[in-house]
């Protein structure tokens, strides 16, 4: 095998207004190598691969291909070199067939002749069963990913980029995908594998480049590292084992969900099956799970954006609220922090005080005969800003002018200041800087200590272990039995997330 | 029932449907590319006046039709620049196009009021055109009628069988995906918008040089809007838009013949029929929201901007 | 590409107000070029169009008379547009409102009562609301696009008017002209300035501006309208009901248009005629946008648009230009406005992205 790297990046820089996404990033990928690009959300991995694939330009830096400097104007140029990419958010067209999707993503010469039979051939050859005539919207997420993989394989790639390919797959599908990738590697194809899942990288990758805050912080051979050592490199600090005070939770049940079964209102959503859970006063219940396993549907049910089938499927402080709308549920004592900050939890172009009115109008008496009490609303927003140390020049500024961490502090604070009896928080610290994240977590713990029931839904296991008293796992619209955080291990949660009970059975809550 | 009555009725349907066919099929392509151009009425009326003015001045049919197409195209170009490049709201821009087109056409048409033009020549094949029933139905129309049928076939083939047609649909379906696999969303959309404009222009030209060869202010009388409704009715399929247009042609027949057949209804109520029918059609087609969305381009009406 | 757009971190508040001014200036410049092309002295045309109409008291009064329906409808539409509810059938709602209000005047054509005018206004408002309720119902019940249904109903409304003035409501002593009887004095809006047509309707329009302003800036309904328009998901999160807002905005805008119809009829015309409005319902769409979808902005935009109507008339009389010039003006203004509005959210950057700059080094 030659010594010339198939791909070499030298000193790549890219910044967006206010953010440095890539800072002097250099990287080498050899022929046949499976190279991991490892980092937390927001570390700059996606920006980097968009550059390699010609979707975006960098501000400066060089890219060498087989030792020659290249400058890619668009993905077509990348494909001509043999670079193919499987996107994290698939670049597929739902209303079209598999064959049409593949045809659009490859160069026109390759579409000539009997494309359909070539698709069948390649998919059979690599163990990726696919029917060219099926419409994409009828396929499962795993099958959709196969379209992208087959689309790449049809072009005889020499470098395959995979952006977080396993976040949407079941363990069985992950196994199959790895087989395919190893085989491609044996055939000499280089693979750039982007992930933040350490176990996978240990299993699959030959080398790893670790990024943090837009910079390369280390290179290593995953086989020689432990998951923990790589995690430390990725997070940039020694991992602290969450210290739990053994608080005794014996408060009354404040939030109860029983027999909640509901069909998703979203296209390709996840139906909820017979959910049960209860959160007591003073308790934080964490819900772990891979995105798209019913979290959104559960949230909508709990907030009242979608009504439950029966009134007593959800109760707050003993009152059946299943058929109440969000405003009524808030007045009963529900506080909510949604997953998306901009456009969901806050109106980007509205001022902070108006965003305060958004959720606090009834509970904080900000209305008088339907008229907004500006003074009271401003005061409320200022209280939130002060109490939660939100950095902003004033509450008249638009929500979108705040940094992610500050806006999240405002949104969480907006709910906490209303003193709800039950608070539901989705991804409390998603994409938030470490300082803000710590403050937000602390405020949730304080709420529980004061007697509220806290339900935290998160994909971040570290976070859940840090704050939760008990942890349950949501998978395929079912929730596992909640177990004391002190007595459950990460491995056990991992199995539950994959739909496997620690005993080995597939989880069926019913 | 004698054919004496039937054949003129069929011919009326054809002439009433043809402008709608052009406009609706053009707009179907625009919307398939993810762009909602509500300015069809404005592009049609500009096509009508441009074609009529050219016909009166030059006497050339071909130039008249080309002028109609170009007028629609120029208006569509304005729309494209505003919505695709300057990110303006598509609904508002489409409305502006209609208001502007109606005003400008009235201004230009001012000096053409009362002028006449012989109208498009009909395609007559001696002998064949005289065959009873079939002869007059298939032959004896003006060239634009044939062009309309041909363009429907062409668009249907282009959209479903060619790679570029596939790309147009892809851009309307998911513009981010189309961009990330390396296509120019802007270019595809501009192309579709310009095509739709030219088609609407030809539809307008048909009104002023063939349907009623004279210029009347606001002579499109809402046909552009009906064409927009036809696109929804047709689930964005060219042939269904074609048949929808003929269905509306049929309603025109009721309007013209009802009084002749002794139905005692005011002319105004009969004139309401196409508009009421449009509403009815929209209700029927939109009622089942899942079905209505099935064929709708997912990015319809959304602007695309690359953030880099 | 040499010129590119770059998203601003925060919406430019200055540009929100500067953009309409840019649009007006560009429209006037383009119009001058257009007049030049038509062989008319551009400066004289602008003078005739914009200044001559305002040189007399009567002209100024007419400005307010014409602005009245534009402002009334514009305020109503702006509320709907903010919630992404596109009622473009205000013309039909205006006509139906005029007919329900005017019908009352005809029913009491020989009776005098101080209650007649208020009753007409109420009837007209309800008529306009009823006409707008159809698209609201079709949208909330059948998911029908309100743009198309409200517009189709405009054509239907105009035909209803045509039917009535040609048939049942034709003046029996009117020598067969398609016009109704002249209204009784007590069915006419009180005149504010003698010898002009300026009437109480203008004050009503000002009141509606004030109410609209309060609604959109202080009332929870206005707040909900803004939230649903800017971020529908945040509206759902807050528990605002979208269907309810569709109803509210369509009823308000329909009611405003209906009221405008009555005022136009009993204030400016005095009888029911085949053509009640020269397209106020459509022009009000431009008024709403030009006024930044804000009631106070709509007030100024309505006055400017009223001036284009007067200018069109005066250009027709003194320069023999067709008054269709008005429509061209209005359309151009909206184009330029929409184009300048790009500056609110984006910055124009001249020059290439930096990667190319570096490549040249």
Describe this structure in words.
The complex is a heterotrimer of chains A (about 500), B (about 300) and C (about 350). Chain A is about 35% helix and about 25% strand. With about 500 residues, chain A is of the alpha/beta class. In chain A, the strands form five sheets. In chain A, strands 13, 16, 19, 20, 21, 22 and 23 form a seven-stranded mixed beta sheet that branches. In chain A, strands 6-7-8-3-9-10 form a six-stranded mixed beta sheet, sandwiched between helices. Chain A has a four-stranded antiparallel beta sheet with strand order 2-1-4-5, with helices on one face. In chain A, strand 9 (about 205-210) and strand 10 form a beta hairpin. In chain A, helix 3 (about 100-105) crosses helix 6 (about 140-155), helix 13 packs across helix 14 and helix 14 (about 405-415) packs parallel to helix 15. Chain B is globular. With about 350 residues, chain C is mainly alpha-helical. Chain C has helices at about 15-35, 40-50, 55-80, 90-105, 115-140, 145-165, 200-220, 220-230, 230-240, 240-270, 280-290, 295-320, 325-340, 340-345, 355-360; strands spanning about 5, 345-350. A two-stranded antiparallel sheet of chain C has the order 1-2. In chain C, helix 3 (about 55-80) packs antiparallel against helix 10 and helix 5 packs antiparallel against helix 6 (about 145-165). The longest helix of chain C has 28 residues, at about 240-270. Mean pLDDT of chain C is about 90; it is low at about 350-360. Chains in contact: A-B, A-C, B-C.
Key phrases:
heterotrimer; A: 510 residues; alpha/beta; 7-stranded mixed beta sheet; 6-stranded mixed beta sheet; 17 helices; 23 strands; globular; disordered C terminus; B: 308 residues; mainly alpha; 0% strand
């Amino acid at each position: 095998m030659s010594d010339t790297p198939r791909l070499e990046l030298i000193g790549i820089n890219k910044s967006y207004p206010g953010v440095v996404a890539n800072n002097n990033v250099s990287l080498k990928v050899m022929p046949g190598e499976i190279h991991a690009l490892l980092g937390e959300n927001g570390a700059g991995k996606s920006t980097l691969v968009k550059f390699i694939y010609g979707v975006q330009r960098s501000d400066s830096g060089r890219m060498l291909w087989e030792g020659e400097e290249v400058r890619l104007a668009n993905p077509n140029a990348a494909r001509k070199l043999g670079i193919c990419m499987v996107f994290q958010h698939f670049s597929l067209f739902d209303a079209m067939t598999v064959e049409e999707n593949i045809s659009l993503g490859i160069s026109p010469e390759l579409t000539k002749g009997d494309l359909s039979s070539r698709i069948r051939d390649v998919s059979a050859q690599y163990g990726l069963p696919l029917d060219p005539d099926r419409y994409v919207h009828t396929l499962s997420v795993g099958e959709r990913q196969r379209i992208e993989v087959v689309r790449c394989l049809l072009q005889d790639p020499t470098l395959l980029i995979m952006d977080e390919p396993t976040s949407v797959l079941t363990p069985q599908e992950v196994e199959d995908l790895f087989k395919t990738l190893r085989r491609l590697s044996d055939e000499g194809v280089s693979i750039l594998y982007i992930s933040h899942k350490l176990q996978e990288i240990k299993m699959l990758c030959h080398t790893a480049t670790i990024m943090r805050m837009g910079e390369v912080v280390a290179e290593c051979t995953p086989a020689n590292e432990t998951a923990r050592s790589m995690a430390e490199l990725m997070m940039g600090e020694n991992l602290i084992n969450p210290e739990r005070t053994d608080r005794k939770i014996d408060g009354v049940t404040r939030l109860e969900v029983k027999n909640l079964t509901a069909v998703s209102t979203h296209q390709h959503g996840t139906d909820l099956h017979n959910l049960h859970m209860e959160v007591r006063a003073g308790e934080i219940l964490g819900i772990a799970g891979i995105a798209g396993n019913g979290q959104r549907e559960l949230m909508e049910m709990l907030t009242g954006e979608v009504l439950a089938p029966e009134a007593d499927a959800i109760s707050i402080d003993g009152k059946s609220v299943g058929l109440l709308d969000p405003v009524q549920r808030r007045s009963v004592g529900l506080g909510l922090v949604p997953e998306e900050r901009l456009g969901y939890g806050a109106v980007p172009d509205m001022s902070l005080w108006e965003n305060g009115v958004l959720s606090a109008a009834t509970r904080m008496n900000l209305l008088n005969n339907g008229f907004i009490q500006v003074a009271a609303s401003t005061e409320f927003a200022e209280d939130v800003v002060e109490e939660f140390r939100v950095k902003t020049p004033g509450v008249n500024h638009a929500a979108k002018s705040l940094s992610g961490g500050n806006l999240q502090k405002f949104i969480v604070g907006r709910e906490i200041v209303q003193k709800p009896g039950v608070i539901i928080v989705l991804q409390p610290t998603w994409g938030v800087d470490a300082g803000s994240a710590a403050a937000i977590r602390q405020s949730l713990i304080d709420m529980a200590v004061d007697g509220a029931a806290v339900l935290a839904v998160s994909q971040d296991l570290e976070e859940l272990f840090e704050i939760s008293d008990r942890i349950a796992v949501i998978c395929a619209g079912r929730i596992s039995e909640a177990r004391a955080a002190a007595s459950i291990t990460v491995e056990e949660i991992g199995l539950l997330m994959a739909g496997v009970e620690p005993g080995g059975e597939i989880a069926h809550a019913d | 029932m004698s054919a004496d009555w039937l054949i003129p009725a069929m011919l009326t349907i054809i002439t009433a449907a043809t402008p709608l066919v052009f406009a609706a099929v053009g707009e179907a392509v625009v919307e398939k590319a993810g762009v909602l151009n509500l300015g069809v009425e404005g592009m049609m009326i500009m096509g009508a006046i441009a074609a009529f003015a050219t016909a009166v001045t030059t006497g050339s049919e071909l130039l008249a039709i080309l002028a109609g197409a170009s007028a629609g195209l120029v208006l569509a170009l304005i729309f494209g620049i505003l919505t695709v490049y300057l990110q303006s709201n598509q609904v508002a821009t489409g409305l502006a196009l209609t208001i502007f087109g109606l005003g400008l056409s009235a201004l230009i048409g001012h000096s053409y009021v009362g002028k006449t033009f012989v109208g498009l020549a009909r395609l007559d094949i001696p002998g064949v055109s005289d065959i009873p029933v079939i002869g007059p139905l298939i032959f004896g129309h003006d060239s634009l009628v044939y062009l309309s049928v041909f363009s429907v076939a062409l668009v249907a083939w282009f959209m479903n069988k060619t790679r570029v047609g596939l790309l147009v649909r892809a851009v309307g379906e998911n513009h981010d995906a189309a961009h990330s696999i390396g296509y120019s969303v802007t270019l595809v959309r501009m192309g579709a918008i310009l095509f739709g404009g030219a088609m609407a222009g030809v539809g307008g030209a048909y009104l002023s040089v063939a349907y009623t060869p004279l210029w009347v202010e606001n002579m499109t009388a809402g046909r552009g809007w009906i064409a927009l409704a036809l696109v929804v009715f047709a689930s964005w399929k060219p042939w269904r838009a074609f048949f929808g247009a003929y269905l509306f042609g049929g309603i025109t027949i009721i309007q013209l013949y009802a009084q002749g057949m002794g139905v005692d209804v005011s002319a105004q109520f009969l004139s309401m029929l196409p508009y009421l029918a449009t509403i009815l059609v929209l209700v029927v087609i939109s009622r089942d929201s899942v079905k209505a969305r099935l064929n709708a381009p997912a990015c319809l009406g959304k602007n695309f901007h690359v953030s880099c | 590409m040499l010129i590119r757009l770059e998203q601003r971190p925060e919406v430019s508040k200055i540009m929100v107000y500067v953009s309409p001014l840019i649009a007006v200036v560009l429209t006037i410049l383009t119009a001058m070029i257009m007049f030049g092309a038509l062989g008319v002295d551009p400066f004289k045309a602008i003078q005739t169009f914009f200044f001559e109409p305002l040189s007399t008291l009567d002209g100024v009064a007419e400005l307010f008379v014409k602005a009245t329906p534009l402002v009334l409808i514009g305020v109503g539409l702006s509320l709907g547009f903010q919630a992404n509810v596109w009622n473009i059938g205000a013309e039909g709602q205006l006509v139906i409102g005029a007919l329900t209000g005017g019908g009352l005047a005809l029913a009491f054509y020989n009776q005098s009562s101080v209650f007649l005018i208020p009753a007409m206004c109420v009837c007209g408002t309800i008529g306009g609301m009823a006409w707008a309720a159809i698209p609201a119902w079709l949208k909330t019940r059948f998911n029908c696009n309100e743009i198309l249904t409200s517009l189709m109903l405009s054509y239907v409304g105009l035909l209803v008017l045509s039917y009535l003035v040609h048939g049942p409501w034709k003046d029996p002593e009117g020598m067969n002209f398609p016009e109704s009887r002249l209204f009784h004095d007590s069915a006419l809006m009180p005149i504010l300035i003698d010898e002009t047509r300026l009437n109480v309707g203008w004050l009503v329009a000002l009141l509606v501006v004030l109410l609209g302003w309060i609604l959109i800036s202080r009332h929870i309904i206005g707040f909900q309208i803004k939230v649903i328009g800017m971020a529908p998901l945040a509206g759902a999160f807050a528990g605002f009901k979208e269907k309810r807002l569709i109803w509210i905005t369509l009823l308000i805008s329909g009611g405003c248009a209906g009221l405008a119809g009555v005022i136009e009829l009993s204030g400016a015309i005095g009888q029911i005629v085949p053509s009640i409005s020269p397209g106020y319902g459509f022009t009000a769409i431009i008024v709403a946008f030009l006024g930044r979808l804000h009631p106070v902005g709509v007030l100024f935009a309505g006055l400017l648009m009223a001036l284009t109507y007067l200018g069109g008339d005066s250009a027709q009389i003194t320069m023999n230009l067709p008054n269709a010039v008005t429509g061209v003006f209005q359309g151009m203004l909206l184009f330029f406005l929409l184009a300048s509005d790009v500056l609110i959210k984006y910055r124009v950057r001249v020059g290439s992205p930096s990667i190319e700059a570096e490549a040249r080094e």
